Amino acid sequence: MKIHKEGWPLIIMSLVFALILGGSSFYFGAPPVLYCILAFIPVGFAIFFICFFRNPKRTPGGSSHLVTAPADGKVVIIQEVEEPEFFQGRRLQISVFMSFFNVHVNWAPISGKVSFFRYHRGSYLAAWHPKSSTRNERTTIVFKNEDGTEVLCRQIAGLFARRVVCYAEYDKQFKAGEQIGFIKFGSRADVFLPLGTKVNVKVGDKVTGSETVIAELQKNTNN
Fold first, then answer.
1. Shortest CA distance to 142 belongs to which of 163, 118, 165, 166?
2. Any bridge partners for residue 73, and if so which?
3. Cβ–Cβ under 8 Å, residues 50 and 12
């Protein structure tokens, strides 16, 4: 099992802390039970971080027109909404909630070039809260495919998440299923699609990031 690069600093820090606590307790003559307990606590954190920051190998199932899930988790929202930040109009929103036990890597939902990118500081409402999409710490990324169709993907920090990591840059080209970032400790990923997009999932479905095709864009024959 591969470990995501975002997790190594926390894993190493936990193991070093375990060595310091255990070694100090042993050096100062503490009972063996005590220094074992003191060392086990940070080791436990290291094991948790190893599990949380797992980085599975995925086989991308998307393209410039097939929209794949941006994250592992459960579909919690499928609805037509007003998207005020970039489109400033009505769009179809599909949201995937990542529980504490899901892989927290995020993947590009379509192949395309980044036409818009913005990071927002914000609150830490529970990720399932309707207002978390506009009030929480978040990163907005817009991908433009070969037809000129734009799809917005938003990484949203949750109640326990305290950092959104994003690898997107203006004009950077991504392939569908390529990693675009990581959200630490509970979160949500939203995708905003043109109205009329065919949806292949329903609320409550469990999806696999970069592999599950959640929607199909209409091809623009005018380009």
1. 118
2. 207
3. no
Measured over the CA atoms of residue 68, residue 74, residue 79 and residue 83, the dihedral's sign is negative
Catalytic residue among 63, 95, 111, 187: 187
- Sole residue written with tokens 């917005």: 152
CA 25 to chain CA centroid, Å, is 39
Is 210 catalytic? The answer is no
| Nearest-angstrom CA–CA distance, 115 and 55 | 27
pTM confidence score: 0.80
Residue 219 pLDDT level (bands cut at 50, 70, 90): confident
DSSP string of the chain?
--B-TTTHHHHHHHHHHHHHHHHHHHHTT--HHHHHHHHHHHHHHHHHHHHHTB---------SSEEEPSSSEEEEEEEEEEETTTT-EEEEEEEEEE-TTS--EEE-SSSEEEEEEEEE--B---TTSTTHHHHBSEEEEEEE-TTS-EEEEEEEE-SS--EEEE---TT-EE-TT-EEEEEESSEEEEEEE-TTPEE---TT-EE-TTTSEEEEPPP-TT-
Q: Please give the residue that has the higher pLDDT: either 112 or 60.
A: 112
Instruction: Report which of 165, 183, 151, 192 is spatially closest to residue 73, judged by C-alpha positions.
Output: 183
